Input
Amino acid sequence: MLLLRRCRSLTRLQRHQAAPCFASRAVRLCSSSTEDQRSHQRANWSANWKRIVAGVLTGTGAVVTYGLLHQEVEQADAGLPTTERSSSLPVFSHDEVTKHRSLEDGVWVTYKGGVYDVTEFVPIHPGGNKILLAAGGALEPFWALYAVHDQEYVLEILSQYKVGELSAEDLKKQGEAKASDPYSSDPERHPVLRINSKKPFNAEPPPEILTESYITPHVLFFKRNHLPVPQVDPASYRLQVEGLPRGALTLSLKDLKTRFPKHTITATMQCAGNRRSDMNQVKEVKGLNWGISAIGNAKWSGARLRDVLLAAGFGPDVAKWARHVHFEGLDKDVTGSAYGTSIPINKAMNEDGDVLLAYEMNGEDIPADHGFPVRVVVPGVVGARNVKWLGRIVVSAEESSSHWQQHDYKGFSPGTDWSKVDHASSPAIQELPVQSAITVPADGAQIDRSDETLTVKGYAWSGGGREVVRVDVSLDGGKTWQVAQLRSGDKGQPDEPSPPPGRSWAWKLWELTAPLPPDADELEIICKAVDNSYNVQPDTIPPIWNLRGLLNNAWHRVKVKVTKD
Output
């Protein structure tokens, strides 16, 4: 997510305007005028949070965009109190804190020895009422899970609710019972990955490595996690299939491997936020700052979803009312809510849809980071629908009600901001648009004039099974164009067979070697792809900019210097 980067300077500015009083609301140590000032200031903050709550992911903490909050905070008349401990605050025992576990009795929490009355913040907490899980106790175990809270500006917001200190004796006990890190069991990752967030882990490979191989090794395949990686015992693993007339069907991993034919497809998977960093350069957006490598191509093997649903009782009668298939993962938050999403029933049941319940990736058991023991692979569709650690499938007349289906992974107009976004007005992203990017040379690279030629490399892909049929490359900022050579295999090896129409799930790697333009000191290299429906990438980002930074498929551009030595 795009974290608030400049709140530190804003809150410092506000502190200079604030009255130097740290008195507790609970014990009324401050003057009435200061209490009025604090109430007014809290009202301002409440209004701010209510206006931006629509843009914050449920359960991921107080994450906000700088632009909107900056605009709102400047209107506040009072500042935040400092975060330093004050001896003027009362001391509370753990038993006293535990008495405040509801809105009726007040919601108190502790954090690093401080006691906070967050009752007024509960209704506007971006993560909803999950904050009540910590009521009467410590925040640390929950903030360990939602590590995005570990930001100074979050502490600044928390500080305004401080009412006292935890007793030294109870603080010592709390330290002895320190919560374990829920991410401690996550698998090891390759050190070459460029990390966008550590907890949960999200990372991508360097672009120049990404296209060295037509099939992306799993260690270099981008990692997109929303929660800690679950530890799943393959022997006790069970997949529930529900919503069909025969009742629930329970399948073990062995059942999936022995009761259903094994199918293998080569399919590219791309995060909806791929190339978000380019959108950030136009105007700041909210989300992980992905480069161009939140995409990968792999061989996936497993049982077809269609076969499993037929075995569970899907038939003509069900087809009359069924419209969606829901997927739920085994990765769950502290409330027990699982990552979930859904796809249209037509994609799930189409014989040419190739939706898999995959248990192998590149000929081996799917690694933990990619969904062991079973994940859904929905080729041609956004990565968010390819649920990992699959635990439950539900056939339904309705779309999934999960946060990730209804309040995220949707596109909006460039004119939509967080103050007026309506998630219900936009459909969930399914198929992705045509895409391409330059992986070699890197932006800012230096090219030796004596080389006389320049080789440009990259990838191209289109969603919905549409095949990329051409990639155009310009070395002079779009004035002239040349056609790149496409390949569907590793260099020097035979290409994979051409897929049937509508089932082109894998990317194309492309390459162009051309003479360096004479007398040019700097080159702007551009690529754009065309698919077999003659969809082509838009030339610039502003017309497709959106507040979440999704679906960026504008022409990819890199600038390089040409040197004479």
